[in-house]
Amino acid sequence: MTTAKTATARTATAKAATTALAAGVGLSLGLAGCAATDPAAPDGTVTLTYWMWDANQVPGYQQCANDFEAANPGVRINIEQYGWDDYWTQLTARMVAESAPDVFVDHSQQFGKFAELDQILDVSDRVAASGIDLAQYEDGLVDLWRGQDGGLYGLPKDWDTVGLYYNADMLAESGYTSEDLWELEWNTTDGGTFEEFVAHMSVDSNGVRGDEPGFDKENVEVYGLGYNESGGGYGQVQWAPFALSNGWTYSDRNPWPTAFNYDDPALVETIGWYRSLIDKGYMPSLAVATSGIGSQEALGAGAYASLIEGSWNARSISELAGADFQVAPTPVGPSGERGTVFNGLSDAIYAGTPHPDEAWAWVEHLASPGCQLEVAQEGRVFPAVKEASDQAVKTFTELGVDAEAFSVHVAEGTATPSPVTDRWAQLQTIMQPTMDSVLSFQTGPESLVPANRRVDELLDE
């Protein structure tokens, strides 16, 4: 068992490395952000600016850009990458300044506002003219990008679900097997075998486990389950897998809901159980979880035994130093099924681009089997094209990642599409502080009921 002193040292090392990395990334991204679309190069070459937020995916898409440029010698692709938070801040500012990138990676929570403000192009006519077979994409992904007007505002590029990542070395010491984790189930009464697992994996500074007499929840060395923040109104890698497997749904319909369900007893009781893991010492307090070190770094440093995270981080987590890290699917809930958000990304074309035809050609290439098979070879994400998605499973398996932990949701139909609304930013101004307050024990789970009334009032405005 890792000692408290060792875990603390490894945590400090990870935090220092994270700080240094952030400083370096901030510099390079700042320089990248100075570039802009060149509308008319002297030699007639068109340069398209393409924005991404995931640095891990840049190599795969750079290869797609190289292939595209070889087939389109009059077009150059300039890839710029920003970190997640900075990405949306910069993109919003560029939209206001009418200098947004020609093409950018879009998120299902964000595209609604861009579509409603006519800031991105409806590509429906271009898709039809190109004869693109929308059936080639995983079921449900195309619908994430349909506007309230019926238009199509992007083509799917990938999909994701979440899984239970764990420290396999700690697991071996605990007596659990990887097969055991596939059989875990949970409920809101006693937490089921899942809570038994996180209790056993929690260890205090004296080496006492969470399911043993004398466990000191005030001095925990290893938390059985980690997290990064409260999750606000989304909870994709926090509470959503549990709520969704408890029969809860985000809203009355999706996309474009007219009412949300944050007041549903199924969610209220789920959150009550979820935060009880904090009170029992099996999860860190919200203050500790948001204190500065990332959840993946904490997992790598031995401070967390397990962590719910997205498939998009499978490779980076598997490459964490210091231990062997594996992944299992989310536990089966009271509904009798597992739960996860099923999300995807697309590539959107800025409505103000001076090169809409070239931008469309690039988006068409990005959404093609050729590019997505290139991306699949990188083993970073599951591409949206079914053929490429199958290849990604093979790639992940070769890298030692159990990709079935993610694809089982697609195979069994237990994935819930990410909610799509043009009011997501405003919704989060209500739900983020509400969920923060609940998980920090300032208010009770029942505070979700009045919060939901405010959300629904927002939709009526």
UniProtKB/TrEMBL annotation:
Keyword Signal: yes
Keyword Cytoplasm: no
Keywords in alphabetical order: Signal, Transport
UniProt signal peptide: 1-22
Highest taxon above the source species: Bacteria
InterPro entries referenced in this protein's UniProt entry, alphabetically: SBP (IPR006059)
Entry similarity comment: Belongs to the bacterial solute-binding protein 1 family.
Annotated protein name in UniProt: ABC transporter substrate-binding protein
